[in-house]
User: Fold this.
Amino acid sequence: MSAAQEPHARTTPTVTLPGRPCSAAAALHVVGEKWALLAVREIFFGNHRFEAIARNTGAPRDRLSARLRSLEQAGVVERLPYNERPPRYEYHLTESGRDLAPVIRALLDWGDRWVLEDRPVVMLHDPVADAAAYTGGDAHAHDLDAAWICRTCGEEVVMNTLTVDVRALGWDRSGPREPAPSDG
Assistant:
């Protein structure tokens, strides 16, 4: 089992959703609303306070507040105090939230390719510097051009090499299987 497949402590209760049993559907149930992912993006970018997250997402304040609460309940973000009087909190990504970084990167890449003509946000990769200490301007930093690599064989993954193995009981790729006729 690869590191990506290792089980982690669940941060939110398992939910039963209509349609095909699927981890993508369950994930979208938690983070699939626009303001939720944009809040995760802002916290990933280093904006931890509500005012900055609201300003940079353009979300209505009541909706953003509700999304941050649901992300906190799901274990994607955590609120940490930064002021006692009056009580004020910052939002930080948990391990679960940090694991959404490739999702944010994929959305940025897709938007760069298919939606916008310019690249308003570019992710940089610096293999030398500690990412947490990166201050920019380092000669080692370059635009991230990430690939999807299979940890088992080390090869780059391309769409025509993928197949789907549906393991949900009673389902196959085309949908729910009809029950076998009884021998009665």
About this structure: The two ends are 43 Å apart (CA to CA). The chain has six helices and six strands. The chain has a mean pLDDT of 88.
